[in-house]
Fold each of these.
Amino acid sequence: MKKTGLSKTTRSNFITYGIVIVLAAIMYILQLTGILSSSMQGFLVPMCIYVIMAVSLNLVVGILGELSLGHAGFMCVGAYTSAIFSKCMESTLTFAPLRFGIAILIGAACAAIFGMLIGIPVLRLKGDYLAIVTLAFGEIIKNICNVINLGLDSEGFHLSLKNSTELGLAEDGMIIIKGAQGISGTPKDSNFLIGVVLVLVTLFVVLNLINSRDGRAIMSIRDNRIAAESIGINITKYKLMVFTISAAFAGVAGALYSHNFATLTATGDKFNYNASIMILVYVVLGGIGNIRGSVIATIILYILPEKLRFLSDYRMLVYAIVLIIVMLYNWSPKMKEYRAIAKAKIKERFGRKKEEKAV
Amino acid sequence: MSFLNYLINGLSLGSVYAIIALGYTMVYGIAKMLNFAHGDIIMVGAYIIFNCMNGLGMPPLVAILAAMALCTVLGIVIEKVAYRPLRNASSSLAVLITAIGVSYLLQNVALLIFGADTKSFSSVVSLEAIKLFDGQLTITGEAIVTIVVCIVIMVGLTLFVNKTKAGQAMQAVSEDKGAAQLMGINVNGTIALTFAIGSALAAVAGALMCSAYPNLTPYSGTMPGIKAFVAAVFGGIGSIPGAMVGGLVIGVIEILGKAYISSQLADAIVFAILVVVLLVKPTGLLGKNIQEKV
């Protein structure tokens, strides 16, 4: 083994970017040549959305070591705020890429603010309590999004929590959010290329964060909170940082989401904790703490159900069973012991050859 | 007068939450894990009762006993297969995620077996509603039975935990597993017993909940389960009277919130309470303060 730790991580990072770029290029070519079915084409942007979600959730679950079950709530914030912006500016700012760019930034910023607001109380908690509070926050966000009515006319914004007729809009007014019916008619600014670029940006930020001084401090909190605190690592700061960054990227994913579909509602299970758990499944099956794994697992698990239609009734069942088995296999102390013994035996039998392969 | 009606509805719903919260609080107190699948055991119990009553024509009481027995077995199996191997895992995250997996598994198995359509649960209570003040105040039979059952369970469990050997073993295990083992207590057995009791209570809660709110789907158990956890945290996790107080408070707040503020925001209000409680008094109303040891 050469002692070039940094170049190894850099190489590993470039492999991750490479995988994304190559896959994106293949998809793009398939799309251009018309081989890709139209239903699969509709899958491309959501796939980018969920890759961003999984990578950003992995930052909290894998790197910080805390379970967040409200990730879809941040996505909801990003989706709503960016869609509100785009709807308001649709007539004044006609250059779509710039408008969408600003919308993404607004979505990310608002989600980050929420992440920070939620992070502050959550900092006092850990483990199960933290998980349930993030779940609670996610549900609160979803519930509030469901009752908001927002309108815009020449006098400015009107807000009502009851129904859209109570807004008292002037004649030139426009209803932006119509309660549970949500936002409709958001300009469809997102496309696959923007999605891939955003995935790469997310990966770039997250991977560089992990391999930075801050990233190592965050991982030390995960591995032993008390030891980390005793050597002067500011736990509050880093936890808040991770929550904010992760929420910001969920907001980016939300902006992509709201600009990809004609209507945006918070009803159903798009933004509730089931959606958060779905993303958690991607993270766990890709490997907790393994960013590249999250990318690959998300892509596979997102395409697989489409390709295996005949299994659609059993899809969630299979996910659940695989989730349990993966957790038992990776985390059970007995299993770890057993695996160590098995590994030693394999090494013994095959000597150095196998060892090199394993590395 | 409508306020009194709401209050009674709230107390009835709160009693259901209290019974579910008991399962959470006991399991959390002993195994130190959030059993996400607890809410889904309620759903399984309700489906068993539904099928026993409608399919096999059993009387309600027999159906409930059958559901309790099956849920007990289910709880023990889940604990043994999914949770026990991870009890000493290096991260508490592992068992939490596994519990989420179990919850998903139960939902999807129920979906395959019982179907996605909403079943209309027939009440297990045959008590007539009491009408007071010329019919202005109605107390349904379900509400009376739920509140009484909740109180009986609470008293019974308190006596069980404080007066019997098995109950004291539970207390010992929740204090210190290692020391309890040294004293000759069967730790695995005690934890399994806790899961068994919690799951049996979940079946009872399923019967009472679905009698009052008769729409049964594979996802019926999730939200009540989470709210009951809120109740358990509110009352102080690990405390049996705390679960009762927490359950009743959450139930009343939910119903009053639905009636007077907004039916869509009632859930948000309940969750906001959880956040506030954890901020102000993380150990809950009646919980004990546990110092973290290095």
Note: Chain A is about 70% helix and 5% strand.
Amino acid sequence: MIHRFFALIGLALMALATPSLAQEPLRIEIDNPNIEPLPFAVPNFIAETAAADQYAADLARVVAADLTGSGLFREIPSTAFISSVTSFDSPVQFSDWKAINAQALVTGSVSTAGDNQIVVKFRLFDVFSESQMGEGLQFVGSVNGWRRMAHKVADAVYSRITGEGAYFDSRLVYVSESGPKNARQKRIAIMDYDGANNQFLTTDQSIVLAPRFSPDGNRVIYTSYETGFPKIYMLDIGTVSRQIVADQPGTMSFAPRFAPDGQSVIYSLTTGSNTDLYKMGIGGGTPQQLTSDPTIETAPSFAPDGSQIVFESDRSGTPQLYVMPAGGGEATRISFGQGRYGTPVWSPRGDLIAFTKQNRGRFHIGVMNTDGSGERLLTASFLDEGPTWAPNGRVIMFTRESSGEGGSSTLYSVDISGRNLRPIQQGASDPNWSPLLQ
Amino acid sequence: MKTLPTAALLVAALGLSACSGGLFNQNRLDTDAAGAGAAGADGGITTGALAPNSVEYFNQTIGDRVLFAVDTSTLTDEGRATLTQQAGWLTTNPSFTAIIEGHADEQGTREYNLALGARRAAAVRDYLVSQGVPDARLRTVTFGKERPIEVCSTEVCYAKNRRAVTVIGAGAVS
């Protein structure tokens, strides 16, 4: 289901706490390599109407799961609580939370309103400073979107404590896989970033590959063998209607990705033995050829400002990464380490490029600066590939495939520090992370 | 020549080779080979030589596929020999068209393998054309690493998955 709105109202819920004395403000320095997860507590939200009761515990659980899942926070279980929060507006008993070393405390309330609406409020407290962090916020939305409200609460907590952009209120489009390795069935599917609300967008009749969101998150572009040959399709998520985008007779096209303005698509087009990069308006028209080498040029990705494209080419003899102007032209090689490089993806913050690296029989997901310096490998396994960035540019999701007859694909995420490697969804490949939802 | 399919070897081992001199008419292990269906869904064993103008003869006696070394699309001597026979069959059977499928093993990224599979298919198409098969009867498609026929993760399987398969069909190539 698409929840197209959230009235985000910055209700200046009054600050209850007195300013602190000698404490440093609560802060996670995310780039600190020796970071210790910050202990926090999220008591069940207070149900302010009877009908809201069913959400009170679930909201708190989703907030806690988001924060814990980031690897930067550690939840203190409710069994350790000394205080119980009985009213959203009651003063916080800071000494009780200090006693269990809850450095951050999130309190919330939920009430029902009108037709299928719920209202979620929250406050974040810096326990040891005995102060509220930021103003309280209130979210109003449909009951179906209750998980999104919890993600928004967690996003606010994450951003206030880390100073980083948010990413929990987001989705993934990916390829859902079933069946044996030599007859695998694939469907485009969409889900919340944490795996909830999974929904299939195509049937399993044709091979489908590598879906990518439009910049507004409302459409998906992907490769399908619906005609028997790889072609690029665009799908409207709301209506689940699809249309073919690139269809030149006698050619094959794949690896599409939207331009940051959403008005054009870059992709690989194969004519004969040669694969080059092209650009085409989403409404059709004549494709513009961006590369004209006799080698393989594929896996293009725009810089977030739209000025440059990073892509993969084997023009040097092995697959390596190159950057060129968005309109084509001279390309600069940026990968020089050992091994083969592929699937470069520019960070939404513009500062890094994530990639797949194959070296000595192992696969890695890594990141490098946009000039190729500062390469860091984040993972290693039999087969890792296809990174995608969280909206805040701090977390990467990718496909990990296990080896052998029973080999299967699982989505994993990892922080760009290399910490917090965790499985997200089994039987899944080719993830693409949406922008932060609106 | 290519190795016999596993099922045929098993049947032989079970002592059914009494029909010696006969050829086993059976499905290929491929699930995506459009030409396989004609070989009989019953998987039955028939005796007698295959008709030289049959698709089964093309698939089994000539061999419908050629294999490639890691990360290459260069035809081997053995591959060229098979393709020369394929070209002869296509020339003497002009009503048939063919789709050449290029495949890669699972080493490598999805996108690169798609492009690599296209190179392999094109190498086969170019060779068949050089042997006199009209280009208009041939079409290429890449499956990258999406359709392995062997599922282990060692070179034994990879070697068989790095292939280009000539799938015979009837009618005009669109």
Note: Helices of chain A lie at 53-69, 94-99, 146-162.
